[in-house]
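Below is a filled-in request sheet from our internal design queue. Each sheet records the structural input a requester submitted and the sequence that came back. We keep these sheets so that new team members can see what a complete request looks like end to end.

REQUESTER: design group, bay 2
PRIORITY: normal
MODE: inverse folding
CHAIN LENGTH: 569
BACKBONE (tokenized):
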């Protein structure tokens, strides 16, 4: 009974004055009936009452909600040829809908344009050919790509320090050899990459500012910008659970970058060795924690062995300095993090097995993908307003040094510094790695200052003002999203920031390339309800069936009874 009441709705609402007028008219009609001195007054009064009630219910226009059945469909992007549509229809035997420029979908058989929420069934499985923006996972229970062209994958840092080399890695995901041409900081480069291999590119910038880069294949065209900044020197501590070559070579790397390093290594039970590099006399240490501590690199096992008071000392100092706590994974180890959930999440490894890929070794860890992945399989992070937690899942990177692969070693560690450590001179932000014409572009930043809006402008002098979307976890974390209407270079201007942030909007004809699908993976979609999603729950899950006809029939029966009664008495 309760379910029935929940599934009843009304097109029009009840008004008090409606009821007052209805009561007055009914009383007058009732008095008129009494004065007529007709037999069967009780039946005539009941018929009169039901006639008035049914007439008013007809005005209210009642309906009931019946749950929609579930059905699979095929959704295709724009500009798909009729030949391709026919082949897809034969292969999948599904109803086909093509997205139109007005955000509606056209039924390829009836040519009717509708919003998907208006279908008389729920979409159970949405097979997708091409690229469709912002498929809501709550609406499309399953999303399957029928065809995605793999192309290439490009890894590049968001920023580098002046004096460091810009390391770009290009992964050929196809089986065939690809010819690549690149223009990076006015340097022209041509390389051939065999199928399913990768090739690095290294450029040494001569000045600070943005490096505009373009990488082309026969079918693809990628543009991106890397910011070259003045180097910053941090106070860094390392906690090692045991002596090993990984920390030894990493300490040498930090020393070469002129960071101040304090390393504490456990050499046996209850015994530790302390080492200092570039450590100035002015740098103070209190109870084992540096006053100006910016970054703590720590073995997962070493962190687990610390008593709670020691952990709190490190955390308090790191949060005070807007620092970073960066874990290095160890076999059979556990890391506990807060991931925007009521309870903390355990990230752990239960084996010593290593996965090898692109000269790197990785441990098999659970729950890693609940964090932001900033480098494939190897570097993950969780950004809080006052602390960045990072996880390094690569193992034995020192072997790159031993084999003379200094460029690869530099690349993997430079990602850590560009993505896991806040710069003192700017806000900390991230954005969609690749922006596509008419597809959602995401930008978020962390700021103690009030940032309610940002401005985006392009080379055509178009300016767009975006307002931030609320974040129920952290008010300091601001989210922005928009659909670029122009291709080419765009610039993000944030309040009190001197330098704009650059990004390039690519043609949507390339949107089915696997590299551009990273928009689907952005964690904003997991907990932000963007205003562009206008599908309502009732329209999504239920069909609306009017029941007004039954009350009209009741009204006719009541009026008919009164009329016939008048004639026969």
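RETURNED SEQUENCE:
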């Amino acid at each position: 009974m309760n379910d029935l009441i929940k599934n009843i709705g009304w097109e029009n609402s009840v008004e008090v004055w409606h009821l007052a007028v209805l009561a007055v008219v009914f009383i007058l009609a009732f008095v008129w009936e009494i004065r007529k001195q007709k037999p069967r007054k009780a039946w005539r009064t009941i018929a009169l009452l039901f006639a008035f009630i049914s007439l008013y219910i007809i005005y209210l226009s009642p309906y009931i909600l019946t749950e929609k059945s579930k059905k699979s469909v095929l959704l295709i992007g724009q500009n798909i040829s009729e030949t391709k549509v026919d082949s897809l229809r034969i292969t999948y035997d599904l109803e086909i809908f093509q997205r139109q420029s007005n955000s509606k979908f056209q039924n390829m058989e009836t040519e009717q344009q509708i919003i998907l929420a208006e279908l008389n069934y729920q979409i159970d499985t949405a097979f997708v050919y091409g690229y469709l923006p912002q498929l809501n996972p709550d609406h499309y229970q399953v999303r399957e790509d029928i065809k995605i062209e793999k192309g290439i994958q490009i890894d590049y840092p968001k920023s580098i320090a002046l004096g460091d080399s810009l390391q770009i890695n290009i992964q050929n995901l196809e089986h065939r050899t690809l010819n690549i041409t690149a223009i990076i900081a006015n340097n022209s480069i041509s390389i051939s990459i065999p199928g399913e291999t990768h090739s690095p590119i290294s450029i040494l910038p001569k000045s600070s500012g943005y490096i505009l880069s373009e990488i082309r294949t026969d079918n693809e065209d990628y543009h991106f910008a890397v910011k070259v900044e003045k180097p910053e020197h941090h106070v860094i501590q390392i906690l090692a659970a045991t002596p090993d070559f990984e920390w030894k070579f990493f300490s040498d790397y930090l020393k070469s970058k002129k960071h101040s390093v304090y390393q504490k290594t456990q050499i046996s039970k209850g015994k530790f060795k302390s080492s200092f590099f570039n450590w100035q006399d002015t740098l103070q240490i209190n109870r084992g924690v540096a006053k100006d501590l910016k970054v703590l690199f720590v073995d997962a096992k070493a962190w687990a062995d610390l008593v709670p008071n020691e952990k709190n000392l490190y955390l308090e100092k790191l949060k005070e300095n807007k620092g970073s706590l960066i874990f290095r994974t160890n076999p059979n180890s556990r890391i506990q993090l807060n991931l925007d959930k009521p309870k903390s999440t355990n990230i752990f490894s239960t084996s010593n097995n290593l996965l090898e890929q692109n000269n790197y070794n990785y441990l098999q860890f659970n729950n890693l993908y609940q964090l932001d992945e900033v480098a494939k399989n190897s570097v993950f992070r969780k950004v809080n307003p006052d602390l960045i937690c990072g996880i390094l899942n690569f193992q034995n990177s020192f072997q790159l040094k031993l084999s003379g692969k200094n460029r690869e070693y530099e690349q993997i560690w430079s990602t850590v510094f560009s993505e896991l450590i806040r710069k003192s001179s700017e806000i900390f932000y991230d954005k969609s790695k690749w922006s596509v014409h008419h597809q959602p572009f995401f930008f978020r930043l962390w700021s103690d200052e009030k940032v309610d809006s940002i401005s985006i402008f392009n080379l055509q002098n178009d300016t767009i003002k975006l307002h931030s979307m609320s974040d129920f976890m952290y008010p300091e974390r601001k989210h922005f999203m928009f659909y670029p209407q122009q291709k080419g270079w765009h610039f993000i201007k944030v309040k009190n920031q001197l330098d704009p942030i650059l990004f390039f909007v690519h043609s949507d004809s390339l949107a089915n390339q696997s590299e551009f699908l990273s928009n689907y993976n952005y964690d904003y979609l997991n907990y932000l309800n963007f205003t562009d999603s206008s599908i309502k729950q009732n329209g999504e899950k239920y069909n609306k069936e009017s029941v007004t006809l039954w009350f009209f029939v009741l009204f006719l029966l009541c009026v008919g009874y009164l009329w016939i009664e008048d004639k026969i008495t």
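SHEET NOTES:
- The first strand starts at residue 8 and ends at 10.
- The mean pLDDT is 79.
FILED BY: M.R.
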